[in-house]
Design brief:
Length: 326
């Protein structure tokens, strides 16, 4: 889960009964009972996709699930199959799913990028672009992903922060739309093998992620690989320009070295023009990765444990934002 990195919480008010999440290896859960609260209005939406503009007042009489997400967030992407399933299963029973897309990175503010993402991800329910964070702030939200379940009277009756809690949330949805609770147990991804947290490459958040011998401040400079690289850290090689939210290669052949402990690695990246990255893990070549837009790219899917990944950009212009793991 992205935040400011936090916790996984499922809160179901007394009218639905309090339920508990299963604890994952990465996120701890704190079930809390609370009184329901009125839903705020959608505010500052720059565009509505897959739908004409909607209002929470106009949705009275419907059960509404609002999910805050952003399309390059691996935690958000892992929740989408569940949210899409609920939309398909309960849309004719009175459920309305709304994805509030609140960007983390600047490229996620672009309407064309969001439209491309929702098409690629198969999202057909309404998506609201919350580029100014006004709806985010109205809900008092702090997390990607976050789900708010709203009953027919317009009260928020359940929330889920982070991944997990799918069985409980679906049971709450089913109850509100007058359907029996699901009898098939929902299978959740096993993330117990992931030991490396998300690592940001931009100067604003790279402290503790970039090897200590390299300068982490904003600016353009040359980097050389260190003699050793500690676990769950990365190092740059070549000429790189560090901005607050990304590191951009300034010369052909620039490289990134990453030591990690996880069975999967992704990179949020973009490029000034399409280019194909070469990737090795523990010296073994992986499938090349073509960066042709700003989004999340899978770099490695293999054995769990400790590994060293080496990424090479053949030409200048690669922008690397963050490594995520699964």
């Amino acid at each position: 889960m992205r935040k400011l990195l936090g916790l996984t919480v499922l809160v179901i008010v007394a009218v639905l009964a309090v339920v508990h999440l299963s604890t994952s290896a990465l996120l701890s859960d704190y079930p809390t009972e609370q009184n329901s609260r009125p839903v705020p209005e959608f505010a500052g939406i720059s565009a509505w996709l897959n739908s004409p503009p909607l209002t929470t007042e106009g949705l009275r009489g419907k059960v509404v699930l609002v999910q805050f997400w952003t399309y390059s967030c691996i935690n958000c992407l892992r929740t989408l199959p569940y949210v899409t399933k609920w939309h398909e299963q309960y849309k004719d029973k009175g459920l309305v799913v709304i994805g509030v897309h609140t960007p983390e990175f600047a490229f996620e503010r672009e309407r064309a990028n969001v439209e491309t993402a929702i098409k690629r991800l198969g999202i057909t329910y309404p998506v609201a672009q919350d580029n100014q964070y006004r709806t985010w702030r109205a809900f008092g939200n702090q997390y990607w992903p976050a789900e708010y379940l709203i009953d027919k009277s317009g009260a928020i009756v359940a929330t889920q922060f982070g991944e997990g809690g799918y069985q409980q949330m679906e049971s709450a949805i089913a109850r509100l739309v007058g359907q029996p609770a699901p009898t098939v147990q929902t299978t959740e991804p096993d993330l117990s093998a992931v030991q490396t947290p998300e690592l940001y490459l931009g100067a604003e958040k790279n402290d503790g992620a970039m090897v200590a011998s390299q300068i982490t401040a904003s600016g353009e400079r040359s980097y050389a690989l260190p003699e050793s690289l500690p676990q769950s850290m990365f190092a740059l090689s070549g000429r790189w320009n560090l901005a607050p939210d990304r590191a951009t290669s300034s010369a052909d052949g620039d490289e990134i070295l990453l030591r990690f402990n996880a069975p999967k690695v992704n990179l949020v990246a973009g490029s000034a023009s399409p280019q194909t990255l070469s990737v090795t893990v523990d010296g073994a070549s992986q499938s090349p990765v073509t960066v042709d837009g700003s989004r999340l790219y899978a770099l490695y899917n293999g054995a769990s444990g400790e590994h060293v990944l080496r990424l090479k950009a053949p030409k200048a212009g690669l922008s690397a934002y963050s490594f995520t793991f699964g």
